[in-house]
Every structure is written in C-alpha cells, then in structure tokens.
Write a structure and sequence with these properties.
The N terminus is likely disordered. It contains 5 helices and 15 strands. The chain folds into 2 domains: 94 residues, Elongation Factor Tu (Ef-tu), domain 3, CATH 2.40.30; 141 residues, Rossmann fold. By secondary structure, it is an alpha/beta fold. The chain is globular, with a radius of gyration of 18 Å. α3 links the parallel β8 and β9.
Length: 289
C-alpha cells in the first residue's frame, strides 16, 4: 500500500537551513484502516500499538492522524471528534507505537481501545528530525508525553545520545522507560531530581559547542529550550504539536509565526522545525505534559 507522504531528506543538523517547501505534491494521501495489536498502561500514559504491515517506516519525528473506527464522537447527537495527531514513538517490523495521555474525550477514546478494534490512520505525515553532524553530540530533551518522538529518534541514532526527561510526577515518569539511559527529573521531586528539565539542559550546554539539541514537550519548555540553545550558540530542532484538523496543510489550523515574518504550518513545514526559524515558540505549539 502506498505511503501518504515521502520521508524527509535527512541532512546533518546545522549544515543547511531547513526548507519550507512542503512534501512532494505527488505523494498519495490515503487513509487506511488499521487494527489495534495492544493498548497497555505506562504509568499515567497508554502505549497504543497498531498493526501496519503494509505501511512504510516513518522517519523519527513524523506523525499520524488517528481516529477510532467506531465510537468516535460525542454520542448520537454530538459532533464527531477530529482525528488526533500523534507522534510515532516507535516502529518495529510493521507495528506502529504511539504514546497517549487522556486529556479529553478524543484521547480518552483512543486510550480505551483494545486489541482487535480498528482505527483510521493517515500516516506517516510531516517532516522529521535531521541526523546530527559527524562528531556532534545529540542531546534529547523531552517533557511529559512529548518524549514520544525522542524514543524513535534514539532508536535511529548511530551514536549514544544524552537523554534528559522531565515529568510532572512519578506516574508520568513511568514513560521514561521508553528511552534508554535517561536522566529524569520531576516537578514534585518524586522521581529523580526536583527540577525543570531545562535546568538539566543548561548544565549540559555549559561550555558545549559540538552538540545538537532535539526536543519535544509543552510549549513553555520548548521556548526555554530554544532560548537556551540560542544563547549557547547550539543548534536545536523542536518538535511542535500544535492543534491540527487535517494534518496535510489544507486548513492552516496549526500555523505558527516565523522569525522572519509570515507563518509556518506545523503539519507540513514541521512538526520538527529548526529553532532558528522561530523568534519564540507559540504558546499553543507544544505537546501536552
């Protein structure tokens, strides 16, 4: 079955300014019906696994638009929910993994799915992370459910990365087991150091020149990461998760302001954006913690 979008070019981070050109227009946009293999709790989160034997492997940082095939709406008189944009957390031999948090009726329905149920999926979509330049240390910085695309990114890296993860509490910190060797902190001090993950990053960047930062999480965290990296002269790639209605650039619902004027559509110009393209991270453009 054809893939709805070509994988992005993989360039060394910082070696070339990120293009704003959308993915190839000839890509086949096709929604597919996939079966749930499992949906298991990971602390406060759920790990949804979908069987996708005919799908193409996503690039780290790409996402899918997911909707339950049944029970997807507010009852008989209610409007259907919009499909949810979910970053790939892992890809293993035709199985797509997604990390979910119940933050409303749409995500609650996805968290309720059980093996054998089916979902509609438009995927993989968007532009992903670029590989670090040779000799560059990769620093992965995640917050809350935003750790998801960093897990698949870690799987793809040729060299070990420094992993810094921050969570609200112990239940959410269970998600850290998706990544290897993570340094964990929490808002309440229940797991790891009582600190913000950006405090851990500030220590890592002290005197650091040969590094590239990859980050996904709540918008305030992403803005702090952007500012820290700009001050340190370290390139950063930020995975934004603005609210989306379509996922392929038609509705402009996910537009965020660009540094040099105009707007970027998170779904096609991103979701991974070079931090240098942004004067700041818009308050609605981050993964929920």
């Amino acid at each position: 079955m054809s893939n709805p979008i070509d994988a992005p070019d993989v360039r060394a981070a910082g070696s070339e300014k990120q293009s704003r050109t959308p993915p190839p227009a000839g890509a086949a946009w096709q929604r597919r019906l996939l079966e749930v293999s499992s949906n298991d709790p990971v602390g406060a989160y759920s790990l949804l696994v979908l069987a996708d034997p005919d799908g193409r492997a996503p690039a780290p940082g790409q996402f899918a638009m997911i909707a339950a095939a049944q029970g997807w709406g507010g009852g008989e008189q209610g409007r259907p929910f919009l499909a949810r944009a979910l970053s790939y957390a892992r890809w293993r031999e035709g199985e797509a993994h997604f990390l979910l948090e119940d933050v409303g009726p749409g995500t609650r329905r996805l968290c309720e799915l059980r093996a054998g149920e089916r979902v509609w999926a438009l995927a993989p979509l968007g532009r992903g992370f670029s590989a670090p330049a040779p000799g560059c240390r990769a620093i992965l910085v995640g917050g809350g459910v935003g750790i998801a695309p960093l897990a698949i990114l870690q799987d793809s890296l040729a060299q070990p990365a420094t992993v810094l993860l921050g969570f609200r509490d112990a239940a959410r910190a269970e998600g850290a087991r998706l990544l290897a060797g993570a340094h964990v902190c929490s808002d309440d001090g229940s797991v790891g150091e009582r600190a913000l993950v950006t405090e851990l990053l500030a220590r890592e960047l002290a005197g650091e020149q040969e590094a590239v930062v990859y980050s996904c999480g709540p918008a305030p965290m992403l803005e702090a990461v952007r500012a820290l990296c700009e001050s340190a002269g370290v390139p950063a790639q930020l995975a934004l998760e603005a609210p989306m209605a379509c996922g392929f650039g038609a509705c402009y619902g996910c537009a965020v302001p660009a540094r040099d004027g105009g707007y970027l559509r998170v779904c096609v110009d991103g979701p991974v954006l070079d931090a240098a393209l942004l004067a700041s991270v818009d308050e609605h453009a981050g993964a929920g913690a």
